[in-house]
Structures are given as C-alpha cells and as structure tokens.
Amino acid sequence: MMTLDVEALRKQIPATEKMTYFNTGWDGPSPISVVKAVQERFEYESYNGPSTPEVLESGAAIEQQSKEALGKLINASPEEILLTENTTDGLNVVLPGLDWRPGDEIISCNLEHPSVLLPCYNLTKVAGVKLNILQLSSNSTHDEILSKLEAAFTPKTRMVFLSHIEFSCGLRMPAKQIVKMAKERGVMVMLDAAQGPGHVKLDMQDIGADFYSTPGHKWLLGPDGTGALYIRKDMIPKVRPVRVGYRFAKSFDEKGNFEPNTNEIDKFRVSTTSAAIRAGYLEAVRFALKNGAEASEERSLKLASHLKSELSAVPGVKVTSPMEGPECSGLVTFTVDGKEPAAVVSDLWTKRKVFIRAIGYPPGIRVSLAFFNTEAEIAKLVEGVRAATK
Q: What count of Cα atoms within 13 Å lies in the side-chain half-sphere of residue 63?
C-alpha cells in the first residue's frame, strides 16, 4: 500500500492554508488541479464555440473518461455508471423508476439522511409502499444490525435502502453481509454512498449491491453538481426512466413510431450538462486514484481513532460514534454536556477557524477526518472543545 505525503497534498488544497477544515463529509475542498480543470474547460468551450463538432466530441470524451476513471476506483464497468448531479439525484433515478405495488415493503433505519427517508415517505403516499424503519443506535455493532435486519424481513420486503456510512454518526454498515442476506430472500439493495468514494476503498463486485449512488463533491473533493450512480448491469432493464430525454429512444419518428432503449444506462440521460463541471469531476477522481483508496481510508481511520481518544479524555464530552472495529469510519460525532451542538460549532469557527458541523439526529457535533487533515489540527479542535466545556 502506498504512503501519503500529507504535507505535499495539503499544498495542493488551498483551503487548508486558511482554516482547519473538518467538513469534507458535507462538501470537500477542491485541489488546485480540479479548479484548473473546470476553468480550462470552460474557457475552451467559450472561445471555441460550445456546440462545434470538436468541442462536442471532447465533451463526450470527458464523460466517458469520467465513467472509466470511477469504474477503476469502485471496480465497476463504465456501462454500469451514470453521471449525475449528486447522491440524491441518483437515488431519485432508481426509486420512482421501479415497479412498486401496494403493500411492498422497504427496510431502512432511523439514522438515515433525509435524502433516503423522504423519497421513501413519498412512495408510501404515491404507491402504497410500506416503510419499515429499523431502530439503531449510533454505535450499533454489525451483529446487532444484521440481527435486526433479519427480523425485519417479511414476504413483502422488496428493498433494503440504507447508507453505506451513516452521515449522522459515522457508523459503517456491514454492506456485503446486508446484500448477502437480502439476496437470499430475493430482495433488492440500494446504498446511499454519500460518504463513500474518496473516503473508503470500494469494490462493487465484492459488495454486490444493486444500486450505489455517489457524490463528487464530498470526499472526492470535486465540484458541486457532480456525482455518479452505479446500477448493476442486470438491473438496468428493471428501472424505467421517470425523466425522459432523447437517449431513451433507440429510434423514433414524427409519426409515433418508437423503439425504447431499455438495456443501456444512457436511457436515464436527459439533456445538456456542463462538460466544464464534469472535467473537474474527472480530475477529482483521478486525484483520488493517484492517492490510492486504501491509503486514504487508512489515514482517515487513524486520524479518527486519535480524535476519539483525545475527546474521550475531555470532561463533559461523550463520543457517540463507534469507538473501534469495522463499524468505524472517518466521521466522528460527539456531544458536550450542557452545550447546544450549533453553539459549539459556531464558537470553534468564529474563535479558531475550525470548521465542523452540527447534526440534528442523533443530536451532536460531527467531524470529518479526511486524508489531508493532521494531528496538529486535531489538537486545535480538542483545545477548542475543551474551552467550550468551561
């Protein structure tokens, strides 16, 4: 496994010079190379005509190269990848596009992001689907999760829909085991991977999920408005496009003759997108590939373990995310006795330029430990938290 040169990498990320940035789990600070890729592509289009043949051809190449690069990062075929605007965009390609019947059941959990729960709530209204919400704690073990999941299956269960890593507490789900358990019952699995690529090493063939929706702007450090949806090849025909554009047809004419494109993931593409933003996404994925997913994950886990140890020594502070084991990730959540999370977050930013975020449920404070963060930054954070307890 490669070793990261953290100081050299930090020089490529300008935000690290101005602040202590611990909020990559919401939006990551882009490297200079990503910013340049967007700028250069936008200039190229503007100066050479955005719809001229050469510009269009190079834009199509950026899209294909992005799918190929992400495929290498997550071990998937480019033919199974759709470029999207963000994680939620991908989830909303799949969920309303499946053939739901009244009484069908979806299993999720109480720790989920609204982008998981709200689309499910909508299905209960428009399709008569039942949502079964598992009650988990922020430090549930994999054995506990799998036991509750097993008990939740019924003959009407059609899908398990969970985050791979819970944004609310950093709990990493036993994704591979969940998929195995679901497949034994003929149940689909969709994973919200908002905290996935760039954070942890991923292998779609090993995990085996049917659907895996990812962002480009978080741990990948790409531009806002980018992401990708993985659909396992055999599942593509089972999802109908809800938004329809010209890629939905293999052929058609003005008389109503129409042959739908059912088997290719391009059927979900709607219309014009920004090749400049996609150029930034491509560079972000290449940046992640160059760093190495395994090395980035190891670095995040090491920093997270260190932070949890330091916070646990501060009176009045309670770490609420998993302390050790396979349930851990680079996200660490904690509470401060007698203090509102938002107040602590505001105090750290205004007084120390340490940027973290408050979480609504379970109530707490969340720190994202990315590969470019340092032990010195953790010391600064802990010092600020200690001051907030007094």
A: 18
How large is the greatest C-alpha to C-alpha distance in the chain, in angstroms? 76
Does pTM top 0.90 for this prediction? yes
Residue 70 placed within a domain: yes
Query: What distances in angstroms separate CA 193 from CA 134, 211, 259, one per listed residue?
Result: 19, 10, 33
Distance CA 292, CA 286 (A): 10
Angle at the Cα of 285 from the Cα atoms of 281 and 289, rounded to 5 degrees? 165
- One-letter amino acid of 326: P
Q: Is residue 1 part of a domain?
A: no
Name the domain count of the chain. Answer: 2
- Per residue in 352-377, pLDDT tens? 999 999 999 999 999 999 999 999 99
Question: How far is residue 222's CA from residue 81's CA, in Å, rounded to a whole number?
Answer: 17
* pLDDT of residue 265 exceeding 90: yes
Is pLDDT above 80 for 2? no
Burial 31-43 (b: 16+ CB within 10 A, else e): bebbeebbeebbe
Query: Residue 23 belongs to what domain range?
Result: 6-29+292-388
Domain shared by 78 and 145, yes or no = yes
Distance of CA 101 to the CA centre of its chain: 29
H/E run at residue 173: none
Q: How far is CA 121 from CA 106, 116, 127, 268, in A?
A: 10, 9, 10, 23
Asked, for residue 204, whether it belongs to a domain, the answer is yes
Tokens 């109503």, residue? 256
Verify that 284 and 298 share a domain, yes or no: no
Q: Reply yes or no: is the peptide bond before residue 362 cis, omega within 30 of 0.
A: yes
- Beta strand 249-252 with 258-260: parallel, antiparallel or unpaired? antiparallel
Q: Which residues fall within 8 angstroms of residue 384, CB to CB, at 6 or more apart? A: 347, 348, 351, 352, 354
| Strands 357-359 vs 364-368: parallel, antiparallel or unpaired | antiparallel
Return the SS3 of 243. coil
Nearest CA to 191 among 172, 168, 169, 217? 172
Considering only CA atoms, which of 307, 325, 318 is closest in space to residue 363? Answer: 318
Answer yes or no: do 335 and 369 share one domain: yes
